[in-house]
Amino acid sequence: MATLALAWAICLVLTGVAALHAYWARGGLWPGRDEASLSRAVIGARGLEVMPPAGLTVAVAILIFVAGLFPLMFVFGPPLGLPTNLIRIGMATLAFIFLARGVLPFTRLFRSRHPQEPFATLDRRLYGPLCLLIGAAYVVVLATA
């Protein structure tokens, strides 16, 4: 039962993150006030004053949403005859990706490439820890289902 709740939690959190990316793709500016401040808040790359193209942002939103479905497919079983091993490998890969992304804000190389504020602070206090939590949740679902 706890595994199912955790799978749903991952799905809901990543659906929210995907929705935020879709919002940006449609021209939304929150948490910025213009494109430059949004870029500094969510990307933080040195000298970047614009957001990525809408098509790329939509693609990222779709990938994040699909990543959120994997824990449910793992718990309930794969749809349309997808091999169970494919879902298991996907879960392990996603766990690795989120754990790695969660560690990045604490590395000198990543911080030197994404030094803009408020991104740098948000990444250490929010984005990185959230990714670590999501990655750990994937590991727990994998280990207990």
Helical content, roughly? Answer: over 70%
**Annotation field: number of helices:** 6
In quaternary terms, these chains amount to single chain
H and E string: HHHHHH
* Largest pleated sheet: none
Count of spatially separate domains: 1
Give the CA-CA distance, first to last residue. 10 Å
Q: What is the mean pLDDT?
A: 96
Query: pLDDT below 50 for ≥5 consecutive residues: which ranges?
Result: none
Strand content: under 5%
The gyration radius over C-alpha positions equals: 16 Å
* E-strand count: 0
**Shape label:** globular
> By helix and strand content, what is the structural category?
mainly alpha
Description of the molecule:
- The structure is a single chain.
- The protein is mainly alpha-helical and 145 residues long.
- The protein has one domain (2-144).
- The protein is 74% helix and 0% strand.
- It is built from 6 helices and no strands.
- The chain has helices spanning 2-25, 35-42, 54-76, 84-103, 108-113, 119-144.
- The longest helix has 26 residues, at 119-144.
- The radius of gyration is 16 Å and the shape is globular.
- The model has no long low-confidence stretch (mean pLDDT 96).
